[in-house]
Amino acid sequence: MSFAQGGRPRSAGSRPSETPPSQGLSIPSVTTGLVLLLVALALLSLVIGTGESPATRAWDFLLGDPAARADARIRLAVMDVRLPRTLAALLVGTCLGAAGCLLQAATRNPLAETGLLGVNSGAALAVVLGLTFFGADSPGTLLVWALVGGMAASAVVLLLAGSGRTAGSPLRLVLAGSALGATFHGCTSYVLLGTQSTFDTYRYWTIGSLAGVETSDLVPLLPLVALGLLTALGCARPLAALGLGDDGARSLGHHPGRIRLVVAGAVSLLAGCGVAVAGPVAFLGLLAPYAARALTGPRMTAQLVLSALIAADLMILADILARVVIRPWETPVSVLLAFVGGPLLVWIARSSRLSTAGAGA
Amino acid sequence: MRRTAGEKAPRSGPTEVTPPDSTVLRRGTFSWLLPRRSALAAAVLLPVVAVLIALAVMASSTGMSLSESLSGLIGTGDPGTVMIVRDFRLPRVLTGLLVGAALGIAGCLTQTLAGNRLATPDLVGVNDGATAAVVAAAAGSSTGMVGNWWLGPAGAVAAAVIVVLCAGGAGSAGYRVLVTGIGVSTFLGAVGDLIMSRENDNTAGGVFLWAVGSLNGRDWGVGTPLALVLLGLVPLALAVGHRLQILRFDDDVAASLGVDLRRLRASALALAVALAGTAVGVGGPIAFVALAAPILARRMSGPTRVPVTGSALTGAALIAAADALGRVTAPVELPVGVVTSVLGGPFLLWVLFRPDRATGKA
Questions:
Q1: Distance from CA of B30 to the nearest CA of A (A)
Q2: A343: Cβ–Cβ under 8 A, 6 or more apart, which residues?
Q3: Residue B32's pLDDT is what?
Q4: pLDDT given at position B242
Q5: What is the pLDDT of residue B144?
Q6: What pLDDT shows up at residue B331?
Q7: For B196-203, which contacts have Cβ atoms below 8 Å and span 24 or more sequence positions?
Q8: pLDDT per residue over A148-202, tens digit each?
Q9: How far apart are CA B174 and CA B206, in angstroms?
Q10: Which SS3 state, helix, strand or coil, does residue A298 take?
């Protein structure tokens, strides 16, 4: 496991040479399986939904059947409603999965989730401020508010974590993030207690949904996501070195504090985009890295890729369920993530030998 | 951390070793190890808490002078003042102190258990369990009012029981329970969200107010049971906290010293759940105290201790101060949960990251 470190010597086997406890599955085959699942789910997501367009007709549309292609209703359902949602679920899942994996490795804390850097609470505060004082109401406007708020909040956290004599230590990151996150959260509550009308809209924003997402809202996020993911992949090796403990990483020529701050920046970008699109669904960023670690063991790059894939799979699955559980109404996607992911996390916790970690933060 | 040599080393023989941060107190055949730094911290904290009680009793938006409040407290003032102070303010202040102490101890136990500062009792499902119970009750009632105070603790304990059953054992360092707790509490939180999303806005507003954490209108009827629970649990927590110091070592070392780690972990978790559950039931899920109080207390008592007393005092001080502040910020009274989270964060960072002292691995 990648978290074993010198804070507390452990007897549990955490030798890097150890084979991961996957049940006779190699990482390439698991990855292939997850990618195939993702494709299947994405197709399902395009053909399943509410409304007057049966799944078989939508399927014909995808296969290019001329009669289905000519049907305006089917075109609307597939191209204008379901395609943006599917892309959004892919984007959010990938972002949160990668961000959670990075953050848990950088802080050496398996309890860290993507909201830790203040992204969620900052986004929520910005949304509430936008609703209350600036009359923001459309999903597209709220998305911008959430994105800017999340980024600004995490920038403050990073400035704080990157200053002082212990700049970039995991402890500084964790404490700065949770402390300022609490502050933003308190400010949000304060504003909400005073304004009933904001509270109603905020209630629905905070439980998260992909309904009403437009493709045009997603496009501006793509450069940010790409930057975040590239930084993440570039950081995989240095992060793996951090798994040896700070002194070990230094002896390999790395700067632990600097690595952590760069990684935290990438996490903010990714988590900020994810939260802006889907609302504060922090849980996914905790669950996916856990599942990935149970499959890969300490290999950082594999962890990162699998974590992103698992999260994307779960997000699309949750969004499909959100449409069909209580037809014709939408169920909040965060609720379904919890219903699917909660038991999954419990099952992983029971079945894998959980590494003991986080003595340092 | 500076290690001061124990200058009052016992003269009974070269084999006896006093820990460097402790002093031996002897009286005849009895001896007691006094941890100097922790004792000093407690000695500083107690008067702080006392002053806070006085200020909190005084603090209000009606503007009562210190002498008036005190005469009300002793019972020599005019009947109106006596009633306000004794029947409304004093129980609320004391309830706040008890809630803070309970949260502080619970946080100290879970953080020590996991060796992880993010391991707060709410990870074991107490907050979400309590909230889900309160939400379900509020949704069932026609008025949308938050029901009986015992609903919260009942929900918290039920959630914790579910977590422990699902986890099937504490796992190493209690991690299995914590991770299971995250899964279960997310699930419960979603149940609450689902119920709420189908409720009218009045109910939602009432539950939201509860979920922020407030001591408004808490009187003797709530304070007395809470005090009794704490009286029973605090001595146990002190004993368990003392034993938890062994966790600084490897599990094998602990086992070779004859400590039954499984039982120790289980009892520490059970205590944390009982304390946090009761506190959440009374005051709502007040944010941040269970996280910050043990960190601040550890900062005072030094890294080698499990600061149960310090966490209790720090938690009590945080909540009393926050509640008093929330009452004087006219025009509207701020719920204590808002104040703890808005001001608690910067306060914690200021204490930990003051530029003149580098934080060690406290």
A1: 35
A2: B183, B187
A3: 66
A4: 76
A5: 45
A6: 65
A7: B196/A203, B196/B135, B196/B139, B197/A203, B197/A204, B197/A207, B197/A332, B197/A335, B199/B138, B199/B139, B199/B144, B200/B144, B201/A196, B201/A199, B201/A200, B202/B144, B203/B138, B203/B139, B203/B144
A8: 888 888 888 888 887 777 767 777 888 888 888 888 888 888 888 777 777 777 8
A9: 35
A10: coil
Interface test with A, best of B113, B122, B165, B182 (most A CBs within 10 A): B182
| B292 contact residues in A (CB cutoff 8 A) | 179
The four Cα atoms B292, B298, B299, B300 give a dihedral, to 10 degrees, of 120
Set of chain B residues whose Cβ sits within 8 Å of the Cβ of A354: 171-172, 175-176, 179
In angstroms, rounded to a whole number, what is the distance separating the alpha carbons of residues B360 and B169? 33
- Per the listing, tokens 């452990």 go with A10
Rounded to whole angstroms, the Cα distance separating A223 from A92 reads 14
- Quick one: pLDDT at residue B7? 44
Closest CA to B101 of B282, B302, B299: B282
pTM of the predicted model as reported, rounded to 2 decimal places: 0.76
Q: What is the model's pLDDT at position A311? A: 92
Given CB atoms, is B75 within the 8 Å cutoff of chain A?
no
Q: Which of B170, B137, B167, B171 is nearest to B153 (CA)?
A: B137
Closest CA to B249 of A358, A12, A8: A8
Residue of chain B whose alpha carbon sits nearest to that of A190: B338
Instruction: Tell me if A90 sits within 8 A of A284, measured CB to CB.
Output: no
Per-residue model confidence (pLDDT) at position A50: 65
* B residues 118-177 closer than 8 Å to A (CB): 118-119, 123, 166-168, 171-173, 175-176
Residue-level pLDDT at B1: 43
A116 neighbourhood in chain B, CB within 8 Å: 118
Residue B221, pLDDT > 80, answer no
Cβ pairs bridging A and B (under 8 Å): 201
- The whole-number average pLDDT for the span B222-236 is 79
Which residue among B190, B345, B353 places its CB closest to the CB of A164?
B353
Query: Quick check: B120 and B273 in contact, CB under 8 A?
Result: no
Q: Which two tokens stand for residue A281?
A: 């669904």
Q: Which residues of A touch B248 (CB under 8 A)?
A: 8
Are the C-beta atoms of B310 and B301 separated by less than 8 Å? yes
DSSP secondary structure code for residue A359 in this structure: T
Cβ-based contacts of B250 with chain A (< 8 Å):
8-11
Q: Please, which pLDDT band fits residue B13 given cuts at 50, 70 and 90?
A: very low
What letter represents residue A263's amino acid?
V
**Which residues of chain B have a CB within 8 Å of the CB of A318?**
none
Q: What is the pLDDT of residues A323-349, one digit of tens each?
A: 887 766 777 788 888 888 888 888 887
Instruction: Give the containing element (helix H, strand E) for B209.
Output: helix B201-212
- Beta strand segments in B211-308, E: none
Is the Cβ of B289 closer than 8 Å to some Cβ of chain A? Answer: no
